[in-house]
Write a structure and sequence with these properties.
- It holds the Pfam family Ldl_recept_b.
- GO terms for molecular function: Wnt receptor activity; Wnt-protein binding.
- The structure is a single chain.
- This protein has 179 residues and is mostly beta strands.
- The protein contains no helices and 13 strands.
- Helices cover 0% and strands 40% of the residues.
- The chain has a 4-stranded antiparallel β-sheet with strand order 4-5-6-7, with no helix packed on it. A 4-stranded antiparallel β-sheet has the order 8-9-10-11, with no helix packed on it.
- The chain has 2 domains: 113 residues, Neuraminidase (6 Propeller), CATH 2.120.10.30; 46 residues, Laminin.
Length: 179
Amino acid sequence: KLFFTDYGNAAKVERCDMDGMNRTWIVDSKIEQPTALALDLINKYVYWLDIYLESVEVVDYQGRRRQTITKGRQIRHLCGLAVFENYLYTINSDNLSILRINRYNGTDVQALARLDNAKEIRVYQKRPQAAARSHACEEEPHGAPGGCAHLCLLSSSYKARTCRCRTGFILGTDGRSCK
């Protein structure tokens, strides 16, 4: 799945399949300007910053069990969001510090370090990732991912895929080649 925020005409947090199909709103009320999003892939939670409402909130992948993690004026200066173990990590753009927020007790906020210029944050870990199961976009013996000439996008499950072409090309009638 692909998760994203939108604060155009109607602010929301959405999800869709990697090929853009099955677009679903998971948060569309009491939300104004969601600017950053992070996923807890293990427990299947979506965290986001709303700088207008000055809050950090969370829902599960279906948009249920919504909770406010923390709220207050300090949120309006935050940008970027990452989750790792018990904490959320973000950047305070006002004083360029990295903040660590306990995701279960939002009152536990600590400044970890200062940076010269940052707008986004990611957490990388040394721990090896679980092996990915085989999927429809795996490279075939001749090197084409999922048998697609240009792009292979996972669809509604790891067993389904949609082929797409780069800009300037049209998908062939076989659903795989690009002309």
